Amino acid sequence: MRILIIDDEPVLQDVLGTLLRREGFEVIQASTAGEGLRLVEEQETDLVLLDLMLPDRPGLEVLKELKQKDPELVVVVITAYSSVEGAIAAMREGAFHYIPKPFKNQEVILTVRKGLEQRRLQSENRALRQRLEGIDNLVWRGPAMGSVIELVRRAAPSRSNILLTGESGTGKELLARAIHQLSPRAAGPFVVVNTGSVPTDLLESTLFGHVRGAFTGAVAARRGLFEVADGGTIFLDEIGTITPQTQAKLLRVIQEREFIPVGGEHTVKVDVRLIAATNADLRAMVADGTFREDLYYRLNVITIELPPLRARKEDIPALASHFLRRCGEENGKPNLQLSPEALDVLLAFDWPGNVRQLENVIERAVVLSTGDTIGVDLLPDEVRSPGAVAAPLVPPDGIDLKRAVNDYTRALIEASLSRCGGVQRRAAQMLRVRPSTLNEMIRRLGIAAADRD
Fold first, then answer.
1. Model pTM greater than 0.70?
2. 257-270: per-residue pLDDT in tens?
3. Contact present, 21 and 3 (Cβ < 8 Å)
4. The architecture CATH gives domain 2-127
5. Are the CB atoms for 295 and 301 separated by under 8 Å?
6. Of 59, 77, 252, 418, which has fewest CB within 10 angstroms of its CB?
């Protein structure tokens, strides 16, 4: 562990430096406050031995600045017997302990070891808190999610790839974050890539980077997100939307832990854990040849399926309360409550949009509320009356059924393409049809669609 000595007396610097190096510590030294503060900025430091009498700044000021830079930094002050009051004041400002001059070597070593032990415990506690935050952000009460959480706890410490499946809005990204936080990689980066929202022609360079001049517009080299995630976790959402070409390159990264940037010649090695998610049926995509079988089995080492909200309705009260508290605090309404009647309506609804839809409904109610209680009147019509469907209007002189059906189909397809950014494969998933079927309907109905599949 690294110890910084800030003292303007060369003899004391020499004595302390020799003593601590003999005990196996790495020692760096500064003779002024300014030099010491600069070293703390430049090098990770575990403990500082700080003289309270420095030539350029008062030691108490330096102590305060050190603690501002790193609240967990252990600072031991060195003081003359005549200024013990200053040492006590330093301890009030966060100093770990003080050593009076002249000191005994064993006293210094003992104090330093105790301080470094505190530093180690603080570091371990911080890492534990970071890991627990992932689970703390998940809200559940019933057995359906309980079994999912248990699987997450068991799978997270491993290096294995994980495939998260489930409908849209079930919380796959939140679960991926929990897996990362519970893994040994928690201190590393967590990089999220929604592959379905990245244009197909840019996805490969987004994931693997490119060299300067690799394609039109590549005016400078750029690191890919796999390289950014080195030492941590990368989360690929909507994995079923990637093209066969990108699938092949992804397979190489998983197998060899290396890739070649677009337009490059040299391989880049990475140590990344992969978590993928999909709401599509990858088995069916393998069967119809749109998803590589070898990649599927590489991703499918551990599969965790998130249940839809309609299958875990026992969690709705806790989820609603969580969203109500959070949205209330964000909107300056911290004391809102959900009426029993409104909760009954939430429990009766089937939530096709799952947890994300419930969150949106609660946020809407909070924004529109004027009192302390969220009643049924603040819930949207589709939640209050889920079975109510407006009867179609038939003109007195009749209607062309085929044209009406085609117009309605065209409107649905155009709306889906618009929501999916023109990506036909995603629109097909949204409409629950095969991509080839959607493509044929687009041609038959004369829909102008820029196919970015």
1. no
2. 999 888 888 889 99
3. no
4. 3-Layer(aba) Sandwich (3.40)
5. no
6. 418
